[in-house]
Amino acid sequence: MRELALHLLDIMQNSIKAGATHIHLEVSEQVLQNKLILKVEDNGKGMSKEMCNQVIHPYVTTRTLRKVGLGIPLLYQLCKECEGELKIESELGRGTKLEATLVYNHIDRLPLGNIASTLGTVIMAKPEITYTYRHFYNEKCFELSTEQIKEVLEGVPIENLEIIAWLENYIEINITALYQMEASK
Description:
ATP-binding; Heat Shock Protein 90; globular; nucleotide-binding; ATP-binding protein; 6 helices
């Protein structure tokens, strides 16, 4: 994968397959501490402790069509290469929390990529799920909830292509604003 947003897309797709009704994504760019922290939390079916410990290996997957799962193992390897770590906590019937930490300015760290497009993709795929997103850049924060957006839309489907395009643009503008606020200090 060429960008971290694609890793996040893969993990959120896992949450969708696990039957999640709520998925929380958090990106925390802590430049001053030289850390990038990515979190995905869901309320899906969860995993056993044994599966949690094994899921970082490429030949461990719950899929029946193919016997290789590379998404989490590739992210695990990237975290190790970037002097970070990958933590996975899960409880059967309650959901899963994944947290990837990487050294922010590490030469091997992939670019963050297009988070707005990643969110647009999962919202279009499963609009009935409630998605929340928080993006920190040092002390500044942007937050978004599809539940709030659906209220404003008053029945217009959130997966409408014009709404998704607006939403992706809104996310991009607000992430850029975080960077600009920090630069103007």
